[in-house]
Amino acid sequence: MVAIFFWAFIVGGFICVIGQIMFDVFKLTPAHTLSALVVLGAVLDGLGLYEPLISFAGAGATVPITSFGNALVHGAMAEAEKHGIIGVITGMFQVTSAGISAAIVFGFIGALLFKPKG
């Protein structure tokens, strides 16, 4: 049980270290870093490497933003097998819709409850 937590911490921390290096060393903006990490997750899933990483590290691989890229490609590929080219588009939305919807709803609730500092 301790090994699961250890590897989740190491893998998740390594992904965060990659993002921090992109900020500090390469002087990338947060938007560029976020986009690069999403693309990295998508490429790793396209190569078939992200699912074994999730099996190995659990939340260490599913919590960071790279998992969003993984979900996009994974959903698109699964639906493309069933429905062809239309499945590529619908698969991305089907897999990620719950997370995106939650972000919109909770962001709206937060905006109603809290007053921004100005």
From TrEMBL:
The chain crosses the membrane at residues 6-26, 33-50, 56-73, 85-114. Keywords: Membrane, Transmembrane, Transmembrane helix. It comes from the Bacteria. Pfam families: SpoVAC_SpoVAEB. InterPro entries: Spore_V_AE, SpoVA. PANTHER family: STAGE V SPORULATION PROTEIN AC-RELATED (PTHR38450), STAGE V SPORULATION PROTEIN AEB (PTHR38450:SF2). This is Stage V sporulation protein AE.
